[in-house]
UniProtKB/TrEMBL annotation:
Top-level division of the source organism's lineage: Eukaryota
Protein name, as recorded: Uncharacterized protein
Annotated source species: Nelumbo nucifera (Sacred lotus)
InterPro entries (UniProt xref): 6-blade_b-propeller_TolB-like, WD40
Pfam families: PD40
Length: 638
């Protein structure tokens, strides 16, 4: 039997992207004094990115998430609406499309890899008239952009490979370590990688005339100088220029620049147009008459300008609904009508509550830093949370709070007054991630009071002051993010107890509330296998029937080159469900984002009203601000 209900989760940064694709016309002579004029090519609906020109009329093939997941579209100058191109029906991920000679090439992730912790990304092609979709990537290989790889974190350990489409198995590696390749003619390839001095730079490799016979080429040569980052190159048709995205020391934003290969000089393009926006992944038209890229469309641009509180996302499991929340750590009220969550941890601290149809939102604890929520399962007006800084040491003061409010205040006000009762002692250090028992009498939480982060259970009303407290787990490791099963029989949590020296090697564990029957749920592999020891699993919670678990994990590797994205946390960031014995594993998300902090609700209360409105009505929510950052590992302080 398939899992049922509604899973509510967050995608870090994704609700605020608001990407559109833009272009600038390129004059025959490009100079520092060139006056640029920008033209928007996409219609401001959802997120549009990673485009390529088909011709000099600015016919555009690109990726859009307007249907709830990434699909490929074609824009033509004389057509008012984009055309959806052939795609894989059961794939939620399409990327890097190219149209050439009547064929569409794209990356998809619908076929599972041959083992866990490996990316599903592969290159496919099809005729534009809905022909058969063919896989060009050999099985057991992984292609990005395309380049073959094993998954790592920020700089993928990828090779640059060439092969004839007629026989994709005949691959020749022309360069170790490189990504985002772009052809210049038939014999020169540009690509990016992080140089030995730490700067991301563009390199080129030239193929000799006898390359098809010898398979030997010259060593790559660095093209762009140190002192700035340059990545995601695109070569002009004549081989004289490359367009790149850059990050300079003096600039906090990524911009598109054109690098003259003969003069070895940069011409800045987008910095004069939009100095306070990030710009991504440039591309030339076939004869270099236009330069395209994508960026945040801007707060005043036409198109989608409101981030909905809740967004319906396509689910690969028919019986499951998937809702993306504009916030983190959701939990549902006992009747399912309301969702408590944390909006963010800076400008909008505290707790918020939103209707389960996304139509209205309230604020609680606006003046306090709080993270995580757990609704009391017997009281509609009681929410548990952690008060204090998030993800700090065991000695940092973080306390478990019982937050009580009057539901009648929700009728006529947006800011709800609340009574905050602290349940843990200040001197006990870091206490976080509370989860209420189904009878509402107890709270299980993670505490660092012993010097290690383990689990404790205390009274849900009086906490450890009068109601008492007992330690559930004990050891020199990290037990964290517990969740009580709806039937009350088990508590699930994440732990690195199998490898305490590795603070990223978390797996799923189950334990009874009385401390007995502790066991590990093996998902990535059997006990002792290399895959089992590398799995990173967090944010685990139960299904409403207590038979399934949903969690976020690194089991599917990395689907996109991280340097081509805003701040990105893959491979830790896809949602899965599994039975309590580790069987029935199903992947729920595959994209370039970090998806996490899920909660699982039965489809009761207002959740059963009109689910369609969540995908079409975006008038209730936050203003689209484009609030996202560069990846944390890109530093200009060198």
């Amino acid at each position: 039997m398939n899992p049922k209900g509604t899973i509510i989760f967050t995608s870090v940064g994704r609700p605020y992207y608001g990407f559109d694709i833009f272009s600038v016309s390129l004059p025959s002579i490009i100079a520092a004094t060139t006056s640029w004029k920008e033209h928007r090519l996409t219609d401001g609906i959802s997120v549009n990115f990673n485009g390529q020109f088909v011709d000099e009329d600015e016919t555009l093939v690109y990726v859009s998430e307007r249907t709830g997941y990434a699909r490929v579209y074609l824009n033509q100058a004389n057509s008012p609406k984009p055309k959806q191109l052939p795609s894989v029906a059961d794939s939620l991920f399409h990327d890097r499309p190219i149209v050439k000679d009547g064929r569409l090439y794209f990356v998809s992730a619908h076929e599972p890899a041959d083992k866990h912790l490996k990316s599903w990304s592969a290159l496919y092609s099809t005729l534009l008239d809905h022909g058969k979709i063919e896989r060009l990537t050999p099985y057991k290989a992984v292609d990005y952009s395309p380049s073959i790889s094993q998954s790592e974190f920020h700089e993928l350990d990828t090779d640059i490979v060439v092969f004839p489409e007629s026989d994709p198995t005949q691959r020749t590696t022309i360069c170790k370590r490189g990504g985002w390749p772009t052809w210049s003619g038939d014999s020169t390839i540009f690509f990016h990688r992080q140089a030995d001095d730490g700067w991301w730079s563009i390199f080129r490799v030239d193929l000799p005339e006898n390359f098809q016979l010898s398979g030997v080429c010259e060593a790559p040569r660095r093209v762009t100088p140190p002192g700035l980052h340059a990545f995601t190159p695109a070569a002009s048709h004549d081989g004289k220029r490359i367009a790149v995205a850059t990050r300079r020391r003096e600039n906090s934003f990524r911009h598109i620049e054109i690098f003259d290969l003969e003069l070895e000089s940069f011409c800045r393009v987008t910095e004069t147009l939009n100095p306070k926006f990030h710009h991504y992944n440039p591309f030339f038209s076939p004869k270099s008459g236009f330069l395209g890229y994508h960026r945040f469309r801007g707060k005043s641009a036409s198109g989608d300008s409101i981030v909905p509180h809740l967004e319906l996302v396509t689910s690969p499991v028919k019986e499951l609904r998937m809702l993306r929340l504009n916030g983190s750590f959701p939990s549902c009220s006992p009747d399912g009508d309301l969702i408590a969550f944390n909006h963010d941890f800076d400008a909008n601290a505290g707790i918020k509550i939103v209707r389960s149809d996304g139509s209205r939102r309230w604020s609680i604890l606006k003046d306090r830093t709080a993270f995580y929520t757990s609704w009391n399962r017997t009281e509609k007006n009681v929410i548990y949370s952690s008060v204090g800084p998030i993800f700090e040491s065991v000695k940092s003061t973080v306390q478990i709070a019982r937050v009580t409010f009057n539901p009648k205040d929700m009728d006529d006000r947006e800011d709800i007054p609340a009574e905050v009762k602290i349940l843990t002692k200040e001197e006990t250090g870091n206490n976080a991630f509370p989860s209420c028992s189904p009878d509402g009498k107890f709270v299980v939480f993670r505490s660092g009071r012993s010097g290690h982060k383990n689990l404790y259970i205390m009274d849900a009303v009086d906490g450890e002051f009068n109601g008492g407290i007992r330690q559930l787990t004990d050891g020199p490791w990290i037990d964290t993010m517990p969740n009580w099963s709806p039937d009350g029989k088990l508590i699930v949590f994440s732990s690195n107890r199998h490898n305490p020296s590795n603070v990223e090697a978390f797996s799923i564990y189950l334990i009874r509330p009385d401390g007995t029957d502790l066991r590990r749920v093996y998902v990535a592999g059997v006990e002792g296998s290399a895959e089992a020891e590398r799995e990173r699993i967090n944010h685990v919670c139960f299904s409403p029937d207590s038979l399934w678990l949903v969690f976020t994990a690194n089991l599917g590797g990395v689907l996109t080159e991280p340097v081509s994205m805003p701040n990105q946390f893959q491979p830790y960031g896809d949602l899965y469900v599994v039975r309590l014995d580790g069987s029935g594993l199903k992947r729920l998300t595959w994209n370039g984002y970090e998806n996490g902090t899920p909660t699982w609700n039965s489809t009761t209360g207002e959740m059963d009203m009109d689910m369609d409105r969540l995908s079409v009505e975006t008038v209730v929510g936050d203003r689209l601000m484009g609030q996202f950052d560069e990846p944390l590992w890109i530093s200009c302080d060198m």
